[in-house]
């Protein structure tokens, strides 16, 4: 999250439900159900406790809801990225990994991997781009294409948790 307001933890704890959802909804792609459900766990005594509370809601959700969360993520170097229609957070994260500076051959490789991955699992490949570069992301595609769907759901949720933590650190100031 590169733009917008930042908050102290005390300010987050004092927000109404609607304001809390609005402020924290950029932590996750898609509908803000995780944030909405986490509000009732206030007060949060630390950023780590807030993150753990958010992740607990995500991991406790029914499988269908978890898969819908994963499906809300954009493909890496996909149509939205190439068209410039990613969320500000996703744009920043893909840029940090160097995914906005690819050769035509690299774009084609990402396109092939995105398609193969979606065909195998039915959802996009999710990886914390801010913790990776294009080479490690491409290697991740190759490695993870051999996993079972259940393994990939758990790995993707783990990556969503990492993305959330980094976005949360951008949002909460000391």
UniProtKB/TrEMBL annotation:
What does the record give as the reaction this protein catalyses?
5-hydroxy-2-oxo-4-ureido-2,5-dihydro-1H-imidazole-5-carboxylate + H(+) = (S)-allantoin + CO2
Q: Which Pfam families match?
A: OHCU_decarbox (PF09349)
Please report the stretch or stretches of sequence annotated as the Oxo-4-hydroxy-4-carboxy-5-ureidoimidazoline decarboxylase domain: 13-169
Top-tier EC class: lyase
In terms of InterPro entries, this protein maps to: OHCU_decarboxylase, OHCU_decarboxylase-1, OHCU_decarboxylase_sf
Record-level Gene Ontology MF annotations: 2-oxo-4-hydroxy-4-carboxy-5-ureidoimidazoline decarboxylase activity
| Family annotation (SUPFAM superfamilies) | UraD-Like
Protein's UniProt keywords contain Lyase: yes
Which Gene3D superfamilies would you find in this protein's record? Oxo-4-hydroxy-4-carboxy-5-ureidoimidazoline decarboxylase
Which of UniProt's keywords are assigned here? Decarboxylase, Lyase, Purine metabolism
Pathway involvement of the protein, from the record? Purine metabolism; urate degradation; (S)-allantoin from urate: step 3/3
- EC numbers listed for it are 4.1.1.97
Picking any one GO biological process from the record gives: urate catabolic process
Question: What NCBIfam families is this protein classified in?
Answer: UHCUDC
The protein's name in its UniProt record: 2-oxo-4-hydroxy-4-carboxy-5-ureidoimidazoline decarboxylase
């Amino acid at each position: 999250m590169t733009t917008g307001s930042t908050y102290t933890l005390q300010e987050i704890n004092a927000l109404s439900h609607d304001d809390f959802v609005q402020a924290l909804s950029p932590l996750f792609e898609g509908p803000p159900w995780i944030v909405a459900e986490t509000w009732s766990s206030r007060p949060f005594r630390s950023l780590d406790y807030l993150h753990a509370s958010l992740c607990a809601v995500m991991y406790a959700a029914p499988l269908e809801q978890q898969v819908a969360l994963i499906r809300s993520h954009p493909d890496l170097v996909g149509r939205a990225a190439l068209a410039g229609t990613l969320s500000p957070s996703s744009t920043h994260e893909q840029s940090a990994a160097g995914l906005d500076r690819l050769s035509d051959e690299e774009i084609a490789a990402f396109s092939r991997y995105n398609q193969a991955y979606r065909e195998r699992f039915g959802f996009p490949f999710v990886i914390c781009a801010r913790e990776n570069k294009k080479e490690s992301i491409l290697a991740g595609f190759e490695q993870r294409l051999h996993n079972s769907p259940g393994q990939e759901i758990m790995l993707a949720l783990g990556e969503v948790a990492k993305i959330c933590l980094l976005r949360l650190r951008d949002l909460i100031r000391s």
